[in-house]
């Protein structure tokens, strides 16, 4: 593939003469998993490819995959900056401190860190309101479960993940008061064997819905193997497992954001920003709801999607109590972003402890 | 007809030659691999082996990084090699590395935000103790109950990983970290920061300790009775027992020293390059060090060179990914080839190739 692009650009340079110099911006991407993970990293890489397609020869993209979140991240980001990248997207929470550290050394390079909270003059942060998708997922899960047991494969006990659990639980509970959540902490974003083990354990314990906040398709495969279990695609559509077990999905669509930010670098209008977009602006997509879902449930789910997209409905609307019984949101009150971003508690009804 | 014939004793020539040959074979077959991936093989090999040292754009940064990457590998591999010489297989250095980091970091964070020049030395001590204690588990189980140290030490890696996850989202979590997992960052706390000794060289205390460990291991193995006993235990266990070597003591010593060195490596890493305890803090140094130990022929100087070479393939591999767009897995494959060819070529140390008719004995 690389050779093909080389040939293509060489041919273009021949025909257009000076056109070779048009490649004036390099955008770099640091990935936590392999680009073929079928989930989180895959979608970021789709965003990168969309940037290439949109800008053509004007923008060159580079990436490094499977960069560990420890000491190696800082070196990987530094090398990318040294190689001449103008804007670098670091696409996992664990890159936060390394991104800030490297950004200090390269004031002329723009950095974009996904899902963190530390900003600087040349560091923007961006994330998606996945919890909006979780609400729809919870609705379908709560309506469809027969054992009333929903298994949840969680990655790390960080606010983003806890928010997803709460959102899914609230909406499952709303349609099915008997529903119970079993949560397994995998402590990984991508580890097919661990994820499959977690899914199997949950299914053995009677769960007939598996929700996942990890990136591989292993839980889908485990559910397919067990039969009579439904799942949802995570980060990516995972349509290979439709119509069953995968009945719908939450899709991250980073392409519009990446194109917008690279455009800002080209125009010289880039500024440090804090972006948190959901279904409305299109950063979070809901994958096709398959025929395995009853017609009325599907219609309700789509109606909820519309209501969230238009801003008419917020998934965290009171009355909601915290797990310890104290009041979090009064009747009709809507959660503020600050609380959501730092969420470190379960809502009432989830019978579990957040590991700490 | 080709067949292998056992040499009366291992060939000295091949002992030295096989790592070099293995590297050359890896270059050739790695080149083929990169060619299949659509990259120019010569450019790829140059990017991996030459650019980290001499590329004008990167070398200023990557040369010091070689030491940063090689330091923990050498430190751990030296400890492992002493045990391997005695036939004691500590496969769980990764776990000892994690426990060293946790114990050392916890000891430091207990006195946060004090400032005293004693804090870092104390952390180093606790790091070594943590690794040592974790290695004593397989040690005592082996000497008391005859369990297999390979299995026990390996299993304890997974236990340590879970303790790491608990530590970073629980008892060592940064109280000012908004609920996110991960400890305080040692880079923001001067008294506990394992900073570069001379700015821009990559040389931190851990690298210095790695060099000292090389010298120490060399002296131990060539000049000290304990080193002699270790080698004797590995090469002729029965003879060792007859000459009065206490096997239990050798087991505990070997596991203890390798655990302590791995624990120190973990502490130097957490207080320096990594900066904080996080769930993904360990990045496989404990396992890679096994490769380094064998690549270096279990000899201290060999390990020093092997550690640097391994670091070179890591950093060069990253550059190749970045500059040539080859996938990350191909770099791992490349490193795997290195070990594969080393083990393959190693056959010639103990066997020679014979062509022609079978001799009549």
UniProtKB/TrEMBL annotation, chain A:
Cited InterPro entries: ABC-Purine-Binding (IPR052910), Peripla_BP_I (IPR028082), PnrA-like (IPR003760)
A family per Pfam: Bmp
Signal peptide location: 1-21
Residues of the ABC transporter substrate-binding protein PnrA-like domain: 26-311
One GO location term (cellular component): plasma membrane
Top-level taxon of the source organism: Bacteria
Keywords: Signal
Protein name per the record: ABC transporter substrate-binding protein
Species this protein is from: Pseudoponticoccus marisrubri
UniProtKB/TrEMBL annotation, chain B:
Parts of the chain that traverse the membrane: 12-37, 70-88, 95-112, 118-138, 150-172, 203-221, 250-271, 329-348
Gene Ontology CC, one term: plasma membrane
Molecular-function annotations in GO: transmembrane transporter activity
InterPro entries: ABC_transp_permease (IPR001851)
Keywords: Cell membrane, Membrane, Transmembrane, Transmembrane helix
Membrane topology: Multi-pass membrane protein
Localization of this protein: Cell membrane
Protein name: Sugar ABC transporter permease
Native source species: Pseudoponticoccus marisrubri
């Amino acid at each position: 593939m690389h050779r093909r692009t080389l040939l293509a650009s060489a041919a273009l340079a021949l025909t257009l003469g000076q056109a070779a110099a048009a490649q004036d911006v390099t955008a770099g991407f640091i990935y936590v998993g392999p680009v073929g993970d079928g989930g989180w990293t895959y979608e970021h890489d789709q965003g990168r490819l969309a940037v290439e397609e949109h800008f053509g020869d004007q923008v060159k993209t580079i990436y490094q995959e499977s960069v560990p979140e420890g000491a190696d991240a800082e070196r990987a980001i530094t090398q990318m900056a040294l190689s001449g990248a103008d804007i670098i997207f670091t696409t996992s929470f664990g890159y936060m401190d390394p991104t800030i550290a490297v950004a200090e050394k390269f004031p002329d390079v723009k950095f974009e860190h996904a899902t963190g909270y530390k900003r600087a003059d040349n560091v923007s942060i961006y994330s998606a309101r996945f919890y909006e998708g979780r609400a729809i997922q919870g609705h379908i899960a709560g309506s469809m479960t027969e054992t009333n047991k929903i298994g949840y494969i969680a990655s790390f006990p960080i606010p983003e993940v806890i928010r997803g659990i709460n959102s899914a639980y609230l909406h499952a509970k709303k349609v099915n008061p008997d529903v119970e959540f079993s949560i397994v902490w995998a402590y990984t974003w991508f580890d097919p064997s661990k994820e499959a083990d977690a899914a199997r354990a949950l299914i053995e314990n009677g769960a007939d819905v598996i929700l996942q906040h990890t990136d591989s398709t292993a839980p889908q495969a485990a559910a397919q193997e067990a039969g009579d279990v439904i799942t949802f695609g995570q980060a990516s559509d995972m349509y290979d497992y439709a119509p069953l077990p995968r009945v719908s999905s939450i899709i991250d669509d980073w392409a519009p954001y990446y194109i917008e930010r690279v455009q800002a670098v080209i125009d010289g209008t880039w500024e440090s920003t804090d972006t948190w977009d959901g279904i409305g602006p299109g950063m979070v997509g809901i994958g096709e709801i398959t025929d395995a879902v009853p017609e009325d449930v599907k219609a309700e789910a789509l109606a909820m999607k519309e209501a969230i997209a238009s801003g008419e409905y917020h998934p965290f609307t009171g009355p909601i109590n915290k797990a310890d019984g104290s009041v979090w949101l009064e009747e009709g009150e809507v959660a503020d972003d600050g609380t959501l971003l730092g969420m470190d508690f379960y809502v009432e009804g989830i019978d579990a402890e957040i590991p700490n | 007809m080709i067949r292998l014939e056992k040499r009366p004793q291992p060939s000295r020539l091949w002992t030295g030659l096989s790592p070099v040959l293995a590297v050359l074979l890896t270059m050739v077959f790695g080149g083929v691999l990169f060619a299949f991936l659509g990259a120019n093989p010569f450019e790829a090999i140059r990017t991996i082996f030459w650019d980290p040292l001499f590329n004008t754009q990167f070398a200023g940064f990557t040369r010091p990084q070689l030491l940063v990457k090689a330091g923990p590998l050498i430190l751990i591999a030296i400890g492992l090699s002493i045990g391997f010489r005695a036939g004691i297989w500590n496969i769980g250095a990764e776990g000892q590395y994690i426990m060293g980091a946790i114990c050392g970091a916890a000891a430091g964070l207990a006195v946060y935000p004090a400032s005293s020049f004693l804090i870092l030395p104390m952390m180093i001590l606790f790091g070594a103790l943590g690794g040592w204690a974790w290695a004593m588990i397989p040690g005592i189980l082996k000497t008391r109950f005859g369990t297999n140290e390979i299995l026990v030490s390996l299993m304890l890696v997974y236990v340590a990983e879970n303790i790491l996850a608990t530590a970073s989202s629980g008892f060592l979590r940064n109280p000012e970290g908004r609920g996110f997992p991960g400890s305080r960052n040692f880079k923001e706390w001067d008294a506990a920061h394992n900073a570069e000794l001379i700015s821009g060289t990559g040389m931190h205390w851990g690298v210095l300790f790695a060099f000292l460990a090389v010298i120490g291991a060399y002296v131990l193995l060539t000049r000290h009775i304990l080193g002699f006993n270790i080698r004797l235990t590995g090469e002729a266990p029965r003879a060792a027992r007859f000459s009065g070597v206490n096997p239990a003591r050798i087991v505990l010593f070997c596991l203890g020293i390798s655990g302590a060195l791995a624990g120190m490596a973990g502490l130097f890493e957490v207080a320096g390059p990594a900066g904080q305890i996080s769930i993904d803090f360990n990045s496989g140094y404990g396992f890679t060090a096994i490769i380094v130990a064998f690549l270096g022929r279990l000899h201290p100087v060999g390990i020093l060179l092997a550690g640097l070479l391994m670091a070179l393939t890591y950093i060069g591999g990253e550059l190749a990914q970045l500059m040539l767009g080859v996938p990350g897995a191909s770099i791992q494959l490349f490193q795997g080839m290195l070990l594969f060819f080393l083990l393959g070529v190693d056959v010639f140390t103990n066997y020679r190739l014979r062509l022609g008719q079978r001799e009549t004995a």
